[in-house]
Amino acid sequence: MNTAKPVNASRLEQPYSERQLGLTELTPSYRVDLRPHKDKAYERFIRVNTVKDWSQLTWERVGKPYEVRTMSEARKQWEQEHEKAMDAKTSWTYFNKAFHEWFDKDIPKEISGDQSAFLKSLATFKPSEIRAALGDVARIHLWNYVHRIQDGVWDPRGKRSLFEGLNVTRPRILFLGAAEGYEAMQLAALYPGAEVVLVDYDAYCKTVRHGEFPDSYPFLGSSTSTGGAKVYYKPDFNIEYVVDDVRNLSFGKTFDIVLSVGLLEHFPDTYKPEVVDWHRRFLKDGGYAIFTTPRNQWKSRLFYVIMADIMNHTYRELMTVEQMGLYIYENGFDIIRHGYIKAHNAVIAQVR
């Protein structure tokens, strides 16, 4: 870990600057990471452009995505009460609230409390209480490792490595299914002067997930004046948040970048062409569509089993980058760049 001296985040609303490049440190809820991604220690997590000719790739060769079938107890209970399958909008609302509660946790404090609760449960000799308490311990330790220690959810170094090098200046960026808008803010840091439009049909995403995203979280990007590195914060970005269904948008082809993160894998094959087309609808000629999905690897499969009550309210698949890219290629895009990082695949494409 870099030994640069951190600034006390509780004292300053924007506690980091270019003077602390190379710093990483843990807050109670997340990791701050101002380290460059171009170093040997991190490069082992990055694999880029592994497919040479997408026209030669077939589904027989790559196989179909892995479907996550374990559902949350909240979804099961809702469906029992309503005697029907949970609709997509309700499931997304349930997921957003559960997910944000975990982002807000003081993780060291939660770990201590859950361990104490587990020890107390042992004294009851009641298997159901012991299982519940043990499940809480397992989930908080896994969340701590994946999100806070490994920074596998936000993964700023990985995202920068996949998003850099686009031929855009002061781009207009549209984020479909934006949630808190993290990746669009990272893009806005890499391409200063960007105009960002976040879209989600759950108002909770605008008011809470994005609205309560910490102003003290630093995004490492580029300086237009020096050409070097610069640290940005959420208030530095030009962001509009639209609460609506993507299918209702009337922007036209006015965006340089159309982005989705963890969107494509929530739709069965019947609907994937439509989801891919949502990106095409809003792109300028020569613009870039960026897609990311969770990777199909044993760590991800285990994560979605242990964290089912927090993560699994909706239909979900885990993909390889080849599977994701083939969906995008077959639906009218050329793949400009593709790769995978710790927990995510990414494809950057242009309309063919």
From TrEMBL:
SUPFAM superfamilies attached to this UniProt entry: S-adenosyl-L-methionine-dependent methyltransferases
GO molecular function annotation: methyltransferase activity
BP term (GO), one: methylation
Superkingdom per UniProt: Bacteria
Keyword annotations of the record: Methyltransferase, Transferase
Name of the protein in question: Methyltransferase domain-containing protein
